[in-house]
User: Fold these one by one.
Assistant:
Number 1:
Amino acid sequence: MALDDSYDLSNLKNHTEELVFRIMEEELNRISDEDVCKCHDCVLDMVCISLNNLEPRYRVSLMGSIYSSAQDGSLEDNVRTVVRNSIQKISLNRAHD
Ligand SMILES: [Zn+2]
């Protein structure tokens, strides 16, 4: 039995991933294109490094977002710090010329 044949696994949402996508967008929008390469490869590398440095927070979401925002403040600060570090790391060591 394949799990994804019997269960709708798309209802599993990683809250950390959603935060990283949103905060990465905010942070990249604050930086000029001349200061950081925003090509597909570099941005995916930045997202990858960020996600690998944060704990995943999965939840089951059957009806949109029902996540409690009580602990979001400090989590968001932490994600922002990790995202900024990832942007800096990749811009100093990008995988292409
Ligand atoms: Zn690039």
Number 2:
Amino acid sequence: MTDCAYCGCEVEAHDPVYVSEGEPEATATPYCNYGCLAAHVEADGLAVGTTCSVDL
Ligand SMILES: [Zn+2]
């Protein structure tokens, strides 16, 4: 049983998405689905100023 990093629900009950940062072997952070991942990114402002090299 794994809890979603965003909402705390059991990810196995949904369509889980796992995100790992850095090394491939690093422990992956679980989310219920892309909706929770997107909501987490949005809520924490993680997309702000992090885009690699896109000219806006
Ligand atoms: Zn969730």
